[in-house]
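note to self: dont lose this again. the chain is below, predicted strucutre after it. 199 aa total, dont forget to put it in the shared folder this time
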Amino acid sequence: MGSKELRGREVWQDTSGLKASVAELDFYSVFNDQFRNTQFRIRPKPNEFRDIYVDVKLSERELAAIYTPATAITRHGLTPDYAIDNIEAKKSLYVEVKRQDGWIEGGKRADGRGNAHERSCKYFTPGLLKILREKGRLGDGVLPFWTVFQGDITRDPCRVREITCWYADHDAHFFFWRDTKDRQGLLDHFNNRLRPLLT
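---
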């Protein structure tokens, strides 16, 4: 395919990004309404982790092997989609909302492309778990994050199995929000499975 054809072709990442933004706003509105006049709040794009990688110590050997830019790196971190805070208890749960295409009726297996669900697994890494647990103050045995999946991925037979396997005994920490008009199902999951961690 030539450059002219490529320029005229719809870029699937652009469409996917727009749908993801809408998904995040839907999630926010549900909890913003729910938490009004309570000790809970939802914060979009919490910035407490925006610089966590800046001060990661590397050995002299590693430093000698990598590129060192002339300008110091002053911002390098991550930003979850949301934080749900219990203001009184000073505890926080970090939230990722992942919308992704999937393989469903009438489609083909390749429709399950994308790696949003895989990228969500960074929160399982030992270093990030330690940092999020310290900041969220939920305790050492608790996963300090919740991932909410939306879109066709929530019905994709392959992706649903992958996610269920990855989270294993931590099924409270993911939710397949299949019907985004069903606010109550999402709220019930939070209230029954996760809210107790914040009290």
